[in-house]
């Protein structure tokens, strides 16, 4: 009997993880990508313990953990350098079963691609969902320049401006501007060591984090009009906005190649979708629940999606029931994290002097009670476990994904 055919539209982190997970469960998988190559758009990605455990299911968790570079203290600072709160990698590991791993997106993409058969990913292939299919009836149909492709399952992993989402839910308002823009850059490490940190100012923040290969992943965010850009270049814009902040921020910006500074406005799906599926078509990642990067959970939730999807849609099972169970698992959890990310972003967007002073005083007060209080922000998020046994946790029993409504 032929294996059922799954077509993934989009080769981002969610799409590739879904392809790996479905392939491992017995699906024949095709990934359609419109770009000419799989060079990742972006710089770094942070993988929290929840997504590391999800990747255990497909045999990748330990490879990710081996890339951890954060050791010792880190935390939140003011632009002048004063510590607002401190956290510790050992405390995070004790609380959540692991700490954050920062890595370049290209590294994660390469690890995922290595687990797919040759020919699975087809680049330079525009794809359009022509028919979502029906769970108990005709297959879904995807249109390409080479002809239509029938599929037992279609996964819409085509990002925040998803055409698959619009085809499934044309009346949904879609993503909205979150009120700020971001910059990302990867540079060589400065000569002087530093503690990993995120620094919050007035309507702006900066993060400086080490990568395992010795480079630094840095990111900035600031309140700005949508679609705005620097009159000269974005490196100069970073220096104007953050060049007077504490060390090593000015040196990090100075080391950046102007052509490698990425700037992107932040949009999110603050209005949740009615469902993550229709017929034989499902949505994963930003297509389903784009969120502000305030909690660093966008890629993590896409990975969770992929693992839960493969768990629910086993070959030969009831596809309609499996897709409905996937929505029931994922929609409440991701909707809660979208809202929580938006609330956290509002704290960063504060610009009035009294409001910023109150925010900073609150963070300082909380930190005096120890790093665990700060880490409580991620309770119900970073402690999530996949709904099946993993090699990294052989004594765990199967559980449903943890609800993140906190």
Strand content: 15-25%
Topology, number of strands: 18
Coarse morphology: globular
Radius of gyration: 21 Å
**Spatial arrangement of strands, main beta sheet:** 5-4-13-14-15-12-16
- Ends apart, CA distance between termini: 46 Å
Largest sheet: 7 strands, mixed
- Helix content percent band: 25-40%
Oligomer: single chain
Question: Could you report the average pLDDT, rounded to the nearest whole number?
Answer: 92
Spans of 5+ residues with little confidence (pLDDT < 50)? Answer: 394-406
Number of helices: 13
Q: What class would the helix/strand composition place it in?
A: alpha/beta
Describe the structure in brief.
The chain has 406 residues and is of the alpha/beta class.
How is this structure best described in words?
This protein is α/β, with parallel strands linked by helices. The protein has 13 helices and 18 strands. It has a 7-stranded mixed beta sheet. Helix 7 (234-242) packs antiparallel against helix 8. The protein is globular and about 60 Å long. Residues 394-406 have low confidence and may be disordered.
List keywords for this structure.
406 residues, alpha/beta, 7-stranded mixed β-sheet, 6-stranded mixed β-sheet, 13 helices, 18 strands, 23% strand, globular, disordered C terminus
Could you give the topology of this structure?
Blueprint: E1 5-9, H1 13-24, E2 28-32, E3 44-47, H2 49-56, H3 61-65, E4 73-77, E5 83-88, H4 89-96, E6 101-104, H5 105-113, E7 121-122, E8 128-131, E9 140-144, E10 147-151, E11 153-156, H6 163-168, E12 176-188, E13 197-200, E14 204-210, E15 215-223, H7 234-242, H8 249-255, E16 262-268, E17 277-278, E18 281-283, H9 286-289, H10 298-312, H11 319-348, H12 353-367, H13 371-375
Parallel strand pairs: 1-2, 1-11, 2-7, 4-13, 11-18
Antiparallel strand pairs: 3-6, 4-5, 8-9, 9-10, 12-15, 12-16, 13-14, 14-15, 17-18
């Amino acid at each position: 009997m032929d294996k059922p055919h799954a077509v993934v539209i989009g080769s981002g982190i969610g799409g590739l993880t879904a392809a790996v997970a479905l392939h491992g469960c017995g699906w024949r998988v095709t990934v359609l990508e419109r770009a000419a190559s799989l060079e990742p758009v972006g710089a770094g990605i942070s993988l929290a313990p929840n997504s590391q455990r999800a990747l255990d299911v497909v045999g990748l968790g330990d490879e990710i953990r081996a890339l951890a570079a954060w050791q010792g203290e880190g935390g939140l600072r003011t632009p002048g350098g004063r510590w607002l709160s401190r956290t510790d990698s050992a405390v995070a590991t004790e609380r959540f079963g692991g700490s954050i791993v920062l890595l370049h997106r290209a590294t994660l993409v390469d690890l995922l691609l290595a687990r797919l058969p040759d020919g699975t990913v087809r680049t330079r292939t525009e794809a359009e969902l022509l028919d979502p299919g029906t769970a108990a009836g005709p297959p879904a149909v995807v249109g390409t320049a080479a002809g239509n492709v029938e599929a037992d399952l279609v996964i819409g992993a085509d990002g925040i401006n998803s055409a698959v989402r619009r085809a499934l839910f044309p009346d949904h308002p879609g993503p909205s501007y979150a009120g700020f823009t971001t910059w990302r850059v990867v540079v060589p490490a400065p000569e002087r060591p530093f503690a990993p940190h995120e620094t919050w100012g007035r309507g702006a923040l900066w993060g400086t984090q080490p990568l395992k290969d010795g480079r630094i992943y840095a990111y900035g965010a600031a309140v700005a009009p949508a679609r705005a850009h620097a009159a000269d270049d974005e490196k100069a814009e970073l220096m104007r906005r953050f060049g007077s902040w504490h060390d090593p921020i000015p040196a990090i910006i100075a080391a950046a190649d102007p052509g490698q500074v990425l700037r992107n406005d932040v949009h999110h799906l603050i209005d949740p979708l009615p469902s993550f599926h229709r017929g034989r078509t499902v949505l994963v990642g930003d297509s389903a629940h784009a969120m502000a990067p305030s909690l660093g959970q966008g890629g993590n939730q896409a990975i969770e999606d992929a693992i839960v999807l493969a768990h629910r849609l086993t070959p030969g099972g009831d596809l309609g029931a499996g897709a409905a169970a996937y929505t029931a698992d994922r929609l409440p959890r991701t909707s809660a994290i979208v809202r929580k990310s938006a609330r956290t972003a509002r704290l960063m967007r504060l610009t009035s002097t009294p409001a910023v002073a109150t925010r900073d005083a609150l963070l300082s007060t909380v930190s005096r009670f120890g790093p665990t209080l700060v880490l409580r922000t991620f309770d119900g998020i970073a402690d999530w476990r996949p709904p099946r046994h993993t090699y990294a946790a052989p004594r765990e029993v199967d559980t449903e994904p943890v609800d993140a409504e906190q």
